[in-house]
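Might I ask for a little of your time on a matter of protein folding? The record follows directly beneath this note:
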Amino acid sequence: MEPRITGSTAVEIAESIRELHDHGRIAAGDPLPPVRTLAERLTVNRNTVVSAYRQLVQAGIAQTHGRGGTRIVDHTRTPQEGFAADSVLRDVGTGNPDPRLIPDPSAALTAVVGRPVLYGEPVIDEALEEWARDWTSRDLPAHDLRLTVTSGAVDAVERLLAQALTRDDAVALEDPCWLAGIQTARLGGYRTIPVPVDEHGMTVEGLQEAMDAGARAVICTPRAQNPTGASLSTERAAALRDVLRAHPYALVIEDDHFSLLSQQRFHSIVPPDHRRFALVRSVSKFLGPDMCLAVVASDPTTAERLSLRLSPGTTWVSHLLQRLAAALLADPDVRAQIDAAGRHYAQRNAAFLDRLAAHGHDAPAPVAASSDGLNVWIRTPAPARDVGEQLMRRGWLARLGDDFALTDAASHHLRLTVHDLDDADADQLAADLSAAVTAAVSKVG
């Protein structure tokens, strides 16, 4: 029996749905009746129902899905990066950097402890600001940049979207997309518009369609896109800038998460005269996930609005953490370690793709664009869920491409974290993956 929605005004209809939701008679993810159907049932004008649904969206109770209608918001947690809990299988889906390649901060820690920082002082450490300004201005030389420090890239993206958008505003996201990006958009109540990713990154046609559909923000990964590992080419970045020139006030967020580790050049999609943009660079991939710190270089207006959400007395980033990051990044030995780590990830990823090719698997060519990042993105001829099940029988736990998809279509990809495997384990995984694909294809056939 469908729950009974009542009311003759927009407020009454919205309150009726809220009460049904509070009492558990409408669950997360449930669709609300089509506007015309509910209007006819309640003998009210269609605009009354539209207004009621809009109130629910603004309150964070419902979310519109275009042609998919309006649904009660589903706050179910999306999968997260990291080790799977309580698994006896060999986990090759973690997305983690190799802890052996993260610089030891012990020596730098003793040098950064200084006088206490008090309320009202500058929120950015002077040494970190100087280093970060040089780091970002080289890649965005045509722009007037302002710097902000946040508690990591996810914190930056969440606050950037919150200062620019309201619930039900549309955000263009790469598809497949990084896990935290999906969760951030969902919890913020934003409408996601998938933009396909190919071997050169975000596609031009996909971005154009997203902007035509009313996207007010775009999140793009210029290098080592997670999960695919793709990096923007010079030509692709130029074509994306051409699309964005017609939308100077759309917020463009570039999440350059792999930055110092990347083996690819940085290519920005921000046009020279764009009005709203932010380049986000976290230190978590090369200084460690527990170093919750990111630098944000943005236009003056965006920086001012962002700083209001990070004002002294509320949530500024610890100066001890900022000093530690600055000390490590200024150390030539640490920078040499980071450079070596970046080469190691690319080499190990490429070597694994070579192993797959030797087994006859149709893996991406072992080129830098496919090997950059902490993971490899493997195409599977059978549904990824079937291949993943076969891998589990052989002792491996992989990350399914379904976790990263914005659409409901079954994925035919796996994301594997293989850089920390020795040669023997990498050989075994390649052999087991090849056997798992064969078994999964036979099952489907």
Notes: Confidence is low (pLDDT under 50) at residues 364-369. The two ends are 40 Å apart (CA to CA).
